[in-house]
Write a structure and sequence with these properties.
Two copies of one chain form a homodimer.
Chain A: H1 4-13, E1 18-32, E2 35-43, E3 53-57, H2 62-74, E4 80-87, H3 100-107, E5 122-131, E6 143-150, H4 161-175, H5 192-203, H6 211-218, E7 222-228, E8 238-242, H7 244-253
Parallel strand pairs in A: 1-5
Antiparallel strand pairs in A: 1-2, 1-3, 2-6, 4-5, 7-8
Chain lengths: 258, 258
């Protein structure tokens, strides 16, 4: 939504285009410089930083809604994207996280005004993984800021979004064992040390992170190249790359890395 | 819902008690005799067998709704229960799966009649695991039958419920690597052969199923007893039992079995 007219149409007549009482929220994780980051949005009508999210258009499915929302905020399409959990505690969309003054200023609406946005709203959580360098975080008319935060230093988020982030991290870390990741996050050629470090950052632990690359080699998902990184005598580690076919197959069918 | 009056109240005034456009559907898996089974319901107003499901009361959270629905149909409370995915393709709650004649007979309503049940409805999928012996499948006023089917021989289900079952199986089989199961499914004392067979049935493969018990022993989740099953000379396998504390801790924190 880019203009005031679009915002006001959304608040007053959005039910014509969107499903009521159901949203998608996206934990977009960014891998950069050995740190895991998270993309947050400061929405003008919310009092706290939140996950990027939005309502689902009537003509799209849930995955399409999540892909649209992550692409709008991160500037990247075709992210690795997985649904992880739906949140629906009564009272989760508490008006405490809404800035009443801003809401009225921007939309002419009051909190708890009857309308298509009233009532309990469940939210379907998706997580995505991208590299920070290629992403272009973008605020829209309704958000004043959109930026990366280190996962280890998140602010207090609005609504139940801190719980969502914790659940997204747990789900992502469980999925590390069952889906290959990293093809768009690591350089096309990488050393074993680099991919081990990548798994350390993603899994949040140093212990056993080398099991991942070892298992990836054993399963043929990463293959050794004839080329070495030249960093001096006796210190020339071999390069590896992902095997495209095995990677796509494993993304589709799942695997067990441990 | 036990009486005609309750059913009619639900169809006409259910919005007072339940959230609109959002349901819970439950894949209740039953372990018995070396076979994995699934509990299905023949609802009088649906044309095909379906997963047990229902709307969410306004005063309950999603887990509570799933626990209520699984307990009502299986007769067992406190099942191992996990949310696995939400389904929301446009058109998924197609009237093709509704028996128009029965609907009118039971409720006085027509398909596509405006009301709180109209419009796209997303459904949150949960799976549960129980033993078949202690379960007491129970139909209600709106369902004519409720019974177990072998997972390997399921009928064509209504709506998108076959897809739900496939996703539930995938999620359950991934979770086998991260949560202990089996405490209420195996006898209190069991042999390694029995627990290996249990994991074969749950995972749907014989390959590597013995990794599970080995890892459970290594992590202290199952412990060897001083007692053996006496089935003749040279054939007396040791008994094992689950360690209560490690089991509960692992259920809470997750683990990696592989």
């Amino acid at each position: 939504m880019e203009t005031l007219k679009e915002i006001q149409d959304f608040f007053h007549k959005g039910y014509l285009e969107y499903r009521p009482n159901l949203t998608v929220d996206c934990a977009i994780f960014g891998y950069h410089g050995g740190e895991l980051q998270l993309l947050l949005v400061k929405n003008k009508v919310f009092t706290k930083w939140c996950l990027p999210g939005g309502y689902i258009r009537k003509d799209e499915n849930l995955d399409q809604a999540a892909a649209r929302i992550t692409a709008e905020r991160s500037g990247i399409s075709n992210l690795f994207l997985k649904q992880f959990k739906t949140f629906g505690d009564p009272g989760r969309n508490s008006p405490r996280s809404v800035d009443e003054e801003q809401l009225f200023k921007l939309t002419g609406m009051k909190i708890n005004e009857p309308g298509w946005l009233a009532g309990e709203t469940a939210s379907i959580g998706y997580y995505a993984i991208t590299d920070v360098v290629n992403a272009k975080p973008k605020a829209d008319y309704l958000s004043s800021e959109c930026q990366w935060f280190p996962v280890s230093k998140l602010p207090l988020l609005g609504f139940d979004h801190n719980e969502m982030v914790n659940e997204a991290l747990s789900a992502m870390r469980m999925n590390l064992y069952h889906f290959p990741i990293g093809k768009n996050l690591l350089p096309p050629k990488f050393t074993l040390k680099e991919i081990k470090h990548f798994y350390e950052v993603m899994s949040g632990k140093t212990l056993n992170a080398s099991n991942f690359p070892n298992k990836l080699i054993a399963l043929g998902l990463i293959v050794k190249l004839d080329e070495k990184r030249n960093i001096g005598a006796h210190r020339s580690p071999a390069y590896y790359r992902f095997d495209e076919d095995s990677y796509e197959k494993a993304l589709d069918e799942g695997l067990v890395l441990a």
